[in-house]
């Protein structure tokens, strides 16, 4: 018997072909009893021991290994193998914000949760710079007894770098090493710029970790910008660091899945994942290790938040779509870093900048636009694209796109330019982010950029300009608005689930930074700074991770679905001028495709009144409803699935938002859905419904009143949607709100789509 297995293993490894890393999901129950461990089974039957990268035994059962395509195909013929998929590389989705989401010192959720004390937040990112003040353990209690993790040592990272704040640190590099060690085209970890440890050489991980759970740090700023007290959303929460992304090399699925395996085993309460496909395309859940790892984590009570992606304002660009993930888009806050472009004819155009060097002091300089030559690389100020003779001593207009914004300024500087105006294209609209440029530079919106170029064309050689920098301004209106880069719906996999779930601050966020690189991230930037200001849904995601830590601390018995529901049903839809939230890209009113349920509002989320809870069986029924086979579902859940005899609609998942697909084939379409709410407020409560119908659609709710008591904590209601009036728009938005007439308004978005 053993000889047969060994022979099969030899047969597999002798098949020729280019090796690559594969993730193999295995039915754990199929392990022959002759093998003492799953590793022995895998290394005897499926792959050579030296070719195995990771073994997974917590969130999934299986392994990753170096295989040829032929070997992978042969493996999938084995009845014990559920799937074998190529390893893929993913990308990162890259101080006033806690107050802006409704947190107040000495009252509300911060007070009720003791600032997230003893909740453990796992951060999957580029590591951490542990010496920062944001990670001090001063006056923190002992490490929670339930913690089972470790402080893994490595290059410039010892056990003393962990403390009562950073209670664990691990790094995962085998996927990278496998990709580069056997003819991979990606390339491995560059140890001349990276640390083979949990230490952060990139800065992104330090920034996200301190956003979620950084301690109070006084006199914080980026070279004078955003000065004040820096603090994370859950300042007393504990941090567990899982370095899965490496500078210049991305994040491999096999390593991400290994981190999920370790984090759940270690005992984290929250996982923050600011990682995605990077191309605005989402894989089906059974091909997505983030979705698969998160499913097992959520089923064990771990809240998982993920970034929506930075491919906005394009529609259907949102990623991380699994309904058990909380998917977070980005918004602005009421703080800005204004700069003005002043033209020679006296006109002034507002923009944004974090430039902190020697100012231009109002001196006017000649203006030039390399893009007038018609050469795309010159318009984008790409490396070696500028003619020094036409740029030297001038302010240069560069178009946004292709290369990093700060890198354009460096190109201008090398060519002898004295400043840069960074102009958005139509795709970026009017959305602006601040950058810590190496030369005097200002970002302007698409309309302003066109007007400045028009001035240059009409004035020719006489065109001049200067840039004035105005520091930090707070109380900006309107705010929040949906960030132009934030990825949007509709959900490209299953439109029955509205994604993103909600938005949170993600523009110009101040947080801790690494000492390994300057604030621009450019190799030539030798500046050192304790804090940096970044933008992206990567910055929005840890706000929700920290918020989940606070809610978990205040309500230890709440499930991940209940925590998400509390955030979504209390989210805000208006800005600080009490107008409906707008879209930064075009200044028009935003829709639930842009912001999901709305903007995170923790002042209300602590006491939502009612929550929409979801069990593991509910998720399985959803997967059955979208026609996944039992074997495919087992790849995700790790156990054999039994689909109900009567197939449900995917819309019937007990989600806090309600998406209804109506067939356009019939004259009048109609669909009824059940929702169940759990009372987490006063036991004896009565809620009445209020409906905002989407245009051209009729919505009725039965019953219209829900009466809760000590004995009745859960009640259901039916939503019936009918109509044929959506017209060419194809989608309509409305809401259902349950209110107790006191402080609770439990709001669910309704999205109706005509097929």
Automatic annotation (TrEMBL):
InterPro entries: PA_dom_sf, PA_domain, Peptidase_S8/S53_dom, Peptidase_S8/S53_dom_sf, Peptidase_S8_Ser-AS, Peptidase_S8_subtilisin-rel, Peptidases_S8_3, S8pro/Inhibitor_I9
Keywords associated with the record: Glycoprotein, Hydrolase, Protease, Serine protease, Signal
PROSITE patterns: SUBTILASE, SUBTILASE_SER
Superkingdom assignment: Eukaryota
The Subtilisin-like protease fibronectin type-III domain, residue ranges: 652-752
Domain Peptidase S8/S53: residue ranges: 116-598
CDD domains assigned: PA_subtilisin_like, Peptidases_S8_3
Active site, per annotation: 125 (charge relay system), 204 (charge relay system), 538 (charge relay system)
GO terms for MF: serine-type endopeptidase activity
Family to which this protein belongs: Belongs to the peptidase S8 family.
Protein name as annotated: Subtilisin-like protease
Lineage, top ranks: Eukaryota, Viridiplantae, Streptophyta, Embryophyta, Tracheophyta
């Amino acid at each position: 018997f053993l000889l047969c297995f060994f022979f099969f293993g030899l047969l597999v490894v002798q098949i020729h072909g280019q090796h690559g890393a594969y993730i193999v999901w295995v039915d754990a129950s199929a392990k022959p009893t002759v093998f003492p461990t799953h590793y022995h089974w895998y290394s005897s039957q499926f792959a050579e021991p030296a070719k195995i990268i990771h073994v997974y035994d917590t969130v999934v059962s299986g392994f990753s290994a170096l295989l040829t395509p032929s070997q992978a195909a042969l493996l999938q013929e084995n009845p014990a193998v559920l799937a074998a998929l190529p390893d893929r590389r993913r990308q990162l989705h890259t101080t006033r914000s806690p107050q802006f989401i409704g947190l107040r010192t000495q009252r509300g959720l911060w007070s009720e949760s003791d600032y997230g004390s003893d909740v453990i937040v796992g951060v999957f990112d580029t590591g951490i710079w542990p010496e920062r003040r944001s990670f001090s353990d001063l006056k923190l209690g002992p490490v929670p007894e339930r913690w089972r993790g470790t402080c893994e040592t490595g290059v410039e990272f010892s056990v003393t770098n962990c403390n009562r704040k950073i209670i664990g640190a691990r790094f995962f590099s085998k996927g990278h090493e496998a990709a580069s060690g056997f003819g991979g085209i990606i390339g491995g970890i560059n140890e001349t710029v990276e640390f083979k440890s949990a230490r952060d050489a990139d800065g992104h991980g330090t920034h996200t970790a301190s956003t979620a759970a950084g301690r109070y740090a006084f006199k914080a700023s980026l070279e004078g910008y955003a000065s004040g007290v820096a603090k994370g959303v859950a300042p007393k929460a504990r941090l567990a660091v899982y370095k899965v992304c490496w500078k210049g090399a991305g994040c491999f699925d096999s390593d991400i899945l290994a981190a999920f395996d370790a984090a759940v085993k270690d005992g984290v309460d929250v996982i923050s994942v600011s990682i995605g496909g990077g191309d605005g395309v989402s894989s089906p859940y059974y091909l997505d290790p983030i979705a698969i790892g998160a499913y097992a984590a959520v089923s064990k009570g771990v809240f998982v938040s993920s970034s929506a992606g930075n491919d906005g304002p394009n529609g259907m660009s949102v990623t991380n779509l699994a309904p058990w993930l909380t998917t977070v888009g980005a918004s602005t806050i009421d703080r800005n870093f204004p700069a003005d472009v002043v033209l020679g004819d006296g006109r002034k155009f507002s923009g944004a900048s974090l430039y902190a060097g020697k100012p231009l002091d109002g001196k006017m300089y000649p203006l030039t636009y390399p893009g007038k030559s018609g050469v795309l690389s010159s318009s984008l100020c790409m490396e070696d694209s500028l003619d020094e003779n036409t740029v030297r001593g001038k302010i240069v207009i560069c178009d946004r796109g292709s290369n990093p914004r700060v890198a354009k300024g460096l190109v201008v500087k090398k060519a002898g330019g004295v400043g840069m105006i960074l102009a958005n294209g139509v795709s970026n609209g009017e959305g602006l982010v601040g950058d810590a440029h190496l030369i005097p530079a200002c970002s302007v919106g698409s309309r302003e950029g066109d007007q400045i170029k028009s001035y240059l064309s009409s004035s020719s050689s006489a065109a001049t300009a200067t840039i004035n920098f105005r520091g930090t301004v707070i109380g900006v209106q309107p705010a929040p608005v949906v960030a132009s880069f934030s990825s949007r719906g509709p959900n490209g996999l299953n439109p029955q689930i509205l994604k993103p779930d909600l938005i949170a601050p993600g523009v110009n966020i101040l947080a801790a930074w690494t000492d390994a690189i300057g604030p621009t991230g450019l190799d030539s930037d030798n500046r050192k700074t304790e804090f940096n200001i970044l933008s992206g849904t990567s910055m929005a995601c840890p706000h929700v991770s920290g918020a989940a830590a606070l809610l978990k601390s205040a309500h230890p018995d709440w499930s991940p679905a209940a925590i998400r529901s509390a955030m979504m049903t209390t989210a805000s839809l208006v800005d600080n001028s009490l107008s409906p939230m707008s879209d930064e890209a075009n200044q028009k009113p935003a829709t639930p495709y842009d912001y999901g349920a709305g903007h995170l509002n923790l002042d209300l989320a602590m006491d939502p009144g009612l929550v929409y809870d979801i069990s593991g069986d509910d998720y399985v029924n959803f997967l059955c409803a979208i026609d996944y086979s039992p074997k495919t579902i087992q790849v995700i859940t790790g156990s054999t699935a039994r689909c109900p005899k009567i197939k449900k609609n995917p819309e019937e998942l007990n989600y806090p938002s309600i998406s209804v697909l109506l067939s356009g084939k019939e004259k009048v379409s109609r669909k009824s859905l059940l929702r169940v709410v759990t009372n987490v407020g006063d036991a004896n409560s009565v809620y009445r419904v209020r409906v905002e119908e989407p245009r051209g659609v009729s919505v009725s709710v039965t019953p219209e009143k829900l009466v809760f008591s000590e004995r009745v904590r859960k009640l259901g209601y039916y939503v019936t949607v009918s109509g044929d009036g959506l017209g060419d728009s194809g989608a309509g938005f409305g809401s259902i709100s349950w209110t107790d007439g006191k402080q609770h308004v439990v709001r669910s978005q309704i999205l109706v789509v005509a097929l």
